[in-house]
Each structure stands twice: as C-alpha cells, then as structure tokens.
Q: What sequence folds into this?
C-alpha cells in the first residue's frame, strides 16, 4: 500500500517516473563562473483582458480600493482543498464520489483524520498525514464497493471483474478520473494510471484489491482532494 | 411553487450521478455545484441542503441556485461555518474557549437569524458566559461585539497609559480590513506616546491614514491586567478622524461601518469565504454583484447569493 501511495503522486501529476538516483560526483562540481545555468521555460500567468470593474471603491482617505487585485485570467486554476468537514467525514464524502452508499462506512477508523478546530474555519491543510488518511480510507471504501455486486451506481462495469489489462485499465482509469476530478483527463494521465494498474498494483493479492488500489490512488490525488 | 419546481427537476437529477458520459460543460457545472456546496456548508451531501435527492442539475443555472442553497444559507451549518471563517480572519489566535471567541458568537447569532451584516458591529448585543454558556442576548448598551467584557479584555492591549491601541487596530481591521504590523519597540526604546510620535512610528500612530493613537483616545482606557482589568471613560475629548469629529466608540464605528470601504471589505470577506482567496481583477463583475446585493439587502446571505447567481460565477 505504501508503494501505491507513492505512485498516486505520479498519476495525479504529470507522469514522470523518477529513475535511479546516482550519487553526486563531487570532483566535477563546477566552480562559480564556469557554469551557465540553463534557462528554464518562462511561466507567466495569463492576464485578465477585456474585463473592467463596473465600479470603483474608495477608502476613508479617498484612495482607490482593489488596486491589490491580482491581474490573472479568470480561467486560471482556482482549486482549493476540500473542506475540513469533508476531510472529517471521508467515508460519506467518498461514498458520494463513488456513487456508493454503505451504512457501515460511517464506522471507519478515522483516528488520524484531522478535525476542524472549534470556532475556526480556514481551508484544510493537506499534509502527508491527511493525504495518507485519504488513501487509507479510500482503499477501504473502494474495496467494499468493488466487493459488493452492483454496489455502485457509477463504477460497476464488467472490466472490474477481472485483473486489469491495458484496455480495461484505461477505461476504468478514464471513468474514475472524470468522476473524481470532474475534469477530462489527458491521454498521458490515463496512460500513467493504466500503467499503475497493470505494473504497480499487481502487488495486491486479489483482483478486487488491485482495482481498489487504483481507485484509492485516484481518490487521493490532487484532483479529488481539492475542489 | 417550489414543490412543482422540485418535481420537474427530479428526472434530470437522477441522471446526474455518473459523470462517465458527461460533456466538458457538465463536468465543469458539477464541479461548480460541489464547490459552492462545500464552500457554504462544508459538505456536498444533499442532506445538508434539506434535500433527499442524489445530485445536482447537469448544468449550473443561476435561477436554480436558490432552490439548492436558498434554505441552506439560513441553517446553523452555514452560520457556524461562516462565523468560523470570520474568526480565522479577525482573531489573533485560535482558542477553544467561548469567552475568547466573542466575534464568532455574535456573527453566528446575526448571520444565523438572517439579520443585516452591520449588526455584527453596531447591534445591541451582549453575551452571557455564566457556566460557560456563551449565550448572545439583546442589550440596549451593546455595540456589536465591541462592548462585550470578554472581548474588551482580550484586545485591551498593554499600552502604558491604558490607551487601547490593540482595540483600535482590531476595529480598523475587522471593519475595513486594514492591516498594520506592530513593532515591538522603536529605536528610542520608548513605547510611550512620546516614542510613538517619533519619526518611523508616527505614521501608524498619529499622522497616517489610520492613526491608532487618535482612535484609541475616543475609546475607554484600560486599568490593570488580567481578571483585575477595569476600564474608565475616555478623557481626551473628540478627535478629528477622516475629516470628522469623533467622540466615542459608537461614533467611530458608525463612521467606519457607514463607509464604502466597509462594504468593500465585507464583500472581500464574503468572496474569500466562497472562493478561498481574494478576488482577481477579472472577477470584478462578480465582486460588484456582491456589493450591489449587500447594499440592497444588507445580509451576508444576499451578498453571497449575488455572487453565486452572477453569470460569470462559474467561468
């Protein structure tokens, strides 16, 4: 499961697999002035164009308010972490994402799940523990869903009855990504997910566990843990 | 009328569960429905909206927004969440003690009853902390949360002569969103009014746009610390603030809350609650819709609905 957790980062992001890490050859470390640092791609956020504020606002001293607004395109990614409440109630929230309802899921061990502080509501911080909790509970709920005949209104496809193949994994990955992320995945993302299902998730003993790993990896990915 | 609308919607809701065949527009709409639901109530569970059907309409249609969220924003789940958000913006630090969360209690009371947002700052309220109840009640001598004893003590500050600089700052920050960074001391090593009038300090304390010392002079003064802290009336007389003579905390707050900057800051608060970040330049039309709704109806619910129902909201 730990291995799968590491792999979910790959699926959720770009698909770059880190290869063997070689020790640094200190004898070849360049001295200052001998090396020209490579110039990477220049990232610039898209600007806001063609939208003008209908109103202007002023402070008590007459200064214009809103000058600190970021000049970014409205289409820029605006995802934010799902709320503390959903982090607190993984079972119900995952059930909802999966289209699967099982009363006993409310009894999941959520001891490591963070709780929103009283009298305070800032966005949840998704650290390693929270991410692992997402994965762990996701794995349990996905496993129950897959073990239940006709358990889900969303994912009970024939492909899930047998071990993943390239074709079945691509289809299941594609469908799950759309369901969890509410976005069309790229070909590369689907391909990475399928590779994970075939190559990495085969550590699981059963077909159900294998698909549960795929499902949990996706439900713990950025597209699912943010809204 | 609403019942008819619900019945008409049910067939499309039933189909909205699986997104396997949803169009990009439908995927985007679903994300927007859920994002809004999670922002307002902290959950995407339909039960949170008083509905027992399983999903949202396939497209995000502003005219359907009241049907889904119109009741939810008057439920305790919403007022609790909004009050918590406001607390995270206004409070110096987290506390699980009710007496250290007076703004939370007042905001929850005002928003939970659908009262005008300004009442958080100007309404006649006090809080009963007997046996840690934290019950808000109407009080003719109240002034939002600013005259609740526990809050007065919490933000009285430690100025040597008892001027409530900390209170002055909280009033500016909570109403207008003004942010000033406190310096532990100045180069003279003199934290008294004389030191605060020195170059480098006077901009925040006497001569700037928001002079803390002048504001503090219209407020009561602190005597003593901790449980023995008491307050005495201001004795410095009216102060000239933003072109007006201000003689009391009530006059000060009426001036602040009556300003355009207050409405601007209230909508920035509402926008950030909804989006998780301040508005960008491109989102100015949505922001303006918030201001228009707040000016028209006065409630934070109207401000939020004004944004959610704006055509650009889900863009």
A:
């Amino acid at each position: 499961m730990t291995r799968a957790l590491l792999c979910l980062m790959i699926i959720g992001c770009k698909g770059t697999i880190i290869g063997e890490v070689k020790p640094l050859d200190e004898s070849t470390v360049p001295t200052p002035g001998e090396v020209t640092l490579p110039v990477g791609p220049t990232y610039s956020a898209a600007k806001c164009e063609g939208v003008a504020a209908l109103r202007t606002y002023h402070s008590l001293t007459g200064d214009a308010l809103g000058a600190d607004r970021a000049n970014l395109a409205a289409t820029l990614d605006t995802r934010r972490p799902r709320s503390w409440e959903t982090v607190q109630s993984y079972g119900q929230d995952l059930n909802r994402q999966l289209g699967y309802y099982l009363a006993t899921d409310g009894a999941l061990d959520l001891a490591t799940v963070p709780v929103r502080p009283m009298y305070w509501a800032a966005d949840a911080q998704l650290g390693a523990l929270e991410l692992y909790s997402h994965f762990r509970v996701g794995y349990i709920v996905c496993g129950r869903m897959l073990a239940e005949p006709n358990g889900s209104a969303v994912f009970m496809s024939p492909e899930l009855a047998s071990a993943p193949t390239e074709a079945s994994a691509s289809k299941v990955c594609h469908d799950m990504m759309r369901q969890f992320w509410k976005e069309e995945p790229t070909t590369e993302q689907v391909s990475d997910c399928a590779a994970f299902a075939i190559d990495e998730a085969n550590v699981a003993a059963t077909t159900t566990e294998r698909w549960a790993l795929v499902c949990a990896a996706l439900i713990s990915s950025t597209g699912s843990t943010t809204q | 009328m609403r019942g008819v609308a619900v019945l008409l919607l049910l067939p499309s809701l039933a189909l909205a569960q699986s997104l396997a065949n949803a169009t990009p527009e439908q995927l985007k709409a679903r994300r927007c429905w859920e994002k809004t639901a999670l922002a307002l109530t902290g959950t995407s569970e339909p039960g949170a909206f008083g509905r027992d059907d399983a999903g949202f309409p396939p497209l995000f249609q502003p005219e359907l927004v009241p049907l889904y969220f119109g009741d939810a924003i008057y439920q305790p789940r919403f007022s609790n969440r909004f009050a918590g958000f406001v607390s995270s913006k206004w409070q110096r630090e987290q506390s699980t003690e009710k007496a250290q969360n007076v703004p939370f209690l007042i905001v929850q009371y005002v928003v939970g009853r659908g009262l005008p947002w300004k009442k958080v700052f100007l309404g006649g309220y006090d809080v009963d902390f007997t046996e840690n109840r934290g019950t808000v009640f109407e009080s003719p001598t109240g002034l939002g949360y600013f005259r609740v004893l526990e809050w007065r003590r919490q933000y009285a500050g430690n100025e040597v002569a008892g001027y409530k600089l900390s209170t002055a700052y909280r009033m500016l920050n909570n109403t207008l969103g003004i942010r000033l960074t406190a310096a532990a001391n100045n180069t003279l090593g003199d934290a008294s009014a004389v030191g605060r009038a020195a170059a480098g300090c006077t901009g925040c304390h006497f001569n700037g746009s928001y002079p803390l010392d002048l504001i503090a002079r219209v407020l009561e003064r602190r005597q003593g610390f901790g449980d023995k802290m008491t307050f005495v009336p201001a004795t410095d007389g009216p102060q000239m603030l933003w072109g007006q003579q201000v003689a009391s905390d009530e006059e000060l707050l009426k001036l602040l809350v009556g300003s355009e900057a207050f409405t601007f800051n209230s909508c920035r608060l509402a926008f950030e609650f909804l989006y998780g970040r301040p508005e960008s330049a491109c989102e100015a039309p949505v922001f303006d819709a918030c201001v228009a709704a707040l000016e028209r109806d006065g409630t934070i619910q109207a401000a939020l609905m004004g944004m959610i129902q704006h055509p650009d909201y889900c863009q």
